[in-house]
Specification:
alpha/beta; Alpha-Beta Plaits; Rossmann fold; eight-stranded mixed sheet; five-stranded mixed sheet; 26 helices; RNA binding; methyltransferase activity; transferase; LOW QUALITY PROTEIN: putative methyltransferase NSUN7
Length: 752
Amino acid sequence: MVKNKNGERLNRSSTCKTKKSDSQIASCKDPTLSDNPAESHIPAISPELQTTGQGQLGFSDSIYLLASVIFQNNHLEKPAAQRLVNYGKERGLSLPEVKDEEMQRSSYELAFNTLKYQELLEDIMIDSCFYLTQPMPDDQMGLVAVMLYDFQDRKFLPRERQQGDEIEQEVRDVENYLLRFKTKLAASLARCRIKHDLLSIECILPESVKMKQERSSSLPLYAWVNTLENSLDEVQSVLESAGFSQVKSMGQLQDKTFCQDPHCGDILVFPAQLKAQLYTTKLLSDHKLIIQDKSCHLGPHAVCSLLPEEGDVLMSGCFSGLTVSHTASLIAEKRKDSSNDQPIVYVCVSDRTDAQREELQQAVTAMGCKNVKLIPEVFQSLNGGDKRLQEVRVILLIPKCSVSAVSNPLEFILQENGDTELLQDLSQGSIAQSKLEALVAQQRKDIDHALKFPKVLAVVYSTCSSYQEENEAVVNRALEQAKARSEQEGEPKQANFRLSPSPFSIPDHAEGPEETEPFFMLEPSEQSNGCFLAVLSREPEPVVKETPHEVLVRANAKGLLDKIGSRKEQHGHTNRMTKTTPSRNSQLHLSVSIQSKNQETKGSNSTTLCGHQEFTNRRQSSQGKAKALHLKVSQNTVSSSFSSPKLENSAPKKSITSVLKATTSTPSLHPAPLPATLAVRPRRAPQEVLKPVVLVLPPVHFPSFFQPQYSRTRFSPSFNYNKWRNPTQSAPLSRTSGGLSKDAMVKSRPLL
């Protein structure tokens, strides 16, 4: 679809609804045909196809030149045996810098339409003998093609020149040649239409291209509300005051109506013909309402729903400043009540020219976004160690794709900074296999690299392609590669990614994917373009139920509990192997100390005999009481070592030596083994286990009436060790209890 130099869209039929017979077409006389009898056999063109719209005056010379360069770079080059017209060998020409957006758009649209009808235009040039008779160099045939398309679109009427237009001599030369051949050119077009039975030239296009053209003519306008400038309620109030009325669904859109998008709440939908009336409200000129395709809105909304309270966003791929501004405004609106700093949107612009970077920055500034930063480095060179990206938690990846799901691909490419090298393939309705493979290879690299950032929680992958190779295949392969890489490098499970459900709710009246579908897809229709979106979320950290022992071991490995777990493990092992070891050690030290002192004090053997006999009888008669006394002895012994430090310090050093000598000099002396039932129960896990200590008791002096023959007698556990006192304060026990009298202890006290 072509525009004139005033920017007005040309009105042409895009479908073939009825057909006329050859006689009906031939019966209409073409006013542009010559009266020469030699040319009377050429059928005429129907008068209804010769009418032109108001203001259809053609384009300026600059637009023709720019369109010819675009066509030269993207035209279909046929094999030499099938080539009808040669356009020269020059390709990849640099485009002149154009600041006028409307001029650039018109040039691309003229070149794109010429690409659609390249084969038809070549047939006309050959059939009319224009290519063979005119002395035009091959490198100017691109200019001839674009001007011929515009010439036939104007029904071969001359162009009206406007004052102030720059004059390009080569454009004027080609125009003069075409005007001379206008009759033959029109006749050749008529013969071609008769041959192919075409009501209009659009009928010669592939079916997929015709379908896209039909859909594009009815696509509604999608516009998102810039919440940095105003709110949704304010925009709706302005529209209602301007005569617009809100309806509930898109099926009710007609005249001056609008509705909310079923997937994104901040998007309003208008009929296609209301763009001029929207400008009268100043919402568009004040950047409060921004017109943009719906497929560009889903990615920013997905990022906003996935971003945590504290985190930044990294954007990479093919998108415009409008998409960046939409993402930044959504995040800023979500965090406006937060006391923390606003999240930053980092944008990779390595593949853009200086003019494109400046344009992006101007668009972001005009929208009022202050949380956007441009990164000039290539996305593949960035990694998690970059200091600027330490807080990045979500990556929005919009790679270059085939744009095969878009009904108006040219408009989309121009608005979203797309790949203009796809124009030739899109004009024919299919993408070459080599180009598709190149796109897929780059998409795989981008998504694989995005999954390598260690702190990223989610990656949003979005395309406007209808090819499975660019959508599901790329995502599934990336997940498999990430899983294999984590297993090979020994990474934990949370290093893997998985597909997450779509963040968009599907209303009851809207057609959409089922809830079980892992991807979000919109099919191309008369209401919207198609798109594909996938959310790859990092696996959550697995919940591990640890035992108390494992908690202590893990804490000790980090140096938090001073190796408590290891001591507990050692203590538990000791309890399992020799449960009576602490009690036996205490009994051994007490017994050895008593025996060594008995050897030093001799005499009074009768009293010792009686006391020992009484101990033996009591042990045999009351085993239960002996167990309780043994536990009490062990507890009091341990407590006495901590409750009387002065007593331990005041003990002579020779007591340790005497104990060692007693143990080595009397190998037949062994402590009485205790029953297994007397073992001390190990402490529970939460309690702190005390360190094992060596107890050194003060020396005990017995009277001299202890007989030597009883030096090896084993003492009963029922002996009340709990009443041992300091040597300076010790009192002898009464004879009736198996002990010594006070007078005997006083007489036998040694001199210190």
